[in-house]
């Protein structure tokens, strides 16, 4: 189940210590669909998108085994996670940006790695 509500701030001293999204932000002019993406054990995959306040995205994913998932952004020395699931094989939902920002969907595999299918698209008002 995904935790929703007030954003969760996590210090940058996390195990992977990222300062920015690992991928260049996408404009999502068309839906992005990825199938059969292999994620190595303990590795992460990010899909980042530039959003303005009140813009929405829809997302759907399935994984071969449970993995961690979140939607996050960076604010100074903190990583804010408005959406987070510690262990899931799949989720779907809509996310609305509360500020102009680069937001990243992130999946993190556990010891066995994972194979991931996902779709992300900008939703129109």
CATH topology: Jelly Rolls
In whole angstroms, the N-to-C terminal distance is 26 Å
* Count of DSSP H/I helices: 0
Q: Provide the residue-averaged pLDDT.
A: 85
Helix content: under 10%
Structural class: mainly beta
> Uncertain segments of ≥5 residues (pLDDT<50)?
1-19
What is the CATH homologous superfamily assignment?
A: GOLD domain
H and E string: EEEEEEE
| Number of separate structural domains | 1
State the name of the first-level CATH class. Answer: Mainly Beta
**Chain oligomer state:** single chain
Number of extended strands: 7
| Strand residue percentage | over 45%
- Which geometry do the CA atoms define? globular
CATH architecture: Sandwich
From the alpha carbons, calculate the radius of gyration and give it in angstroms: 14 Å
**What does the main sheet amount to?**
7 strands, antiparallel
Please tag this protein with its features.
62% strand, seven-stranded antiparallel β-sheet, mainly beta, disordered N terminus, 125 residues, Jelly Rolls
């Amino acid at each position: 189940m995904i935790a929703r509500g007030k954003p969760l701030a996590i210090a940058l001293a996390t195990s992977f210590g990222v300062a920015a999204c690992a991928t260049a932000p996408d404009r999502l002019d068309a839906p992005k669909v990825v199938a059969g993406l292999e994620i190595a054990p303990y590795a992460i995959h990010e899909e980042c998108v530039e959003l303005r306040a009140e813009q929405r995205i829809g997302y759907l994913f399935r994984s071969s085994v449970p993995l961690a998932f979140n939607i996050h952004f960076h604010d100074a020395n903190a990583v804010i996670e408005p959406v987070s699931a510690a262990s899931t094989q799949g989720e779907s939902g809509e996310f609305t940006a509360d500020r102009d920002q680069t937001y990243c969907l992130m999946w993190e595999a556990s010891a066995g790695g994972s194979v991931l299918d996902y779709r992300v698209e900008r939703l129109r008002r």
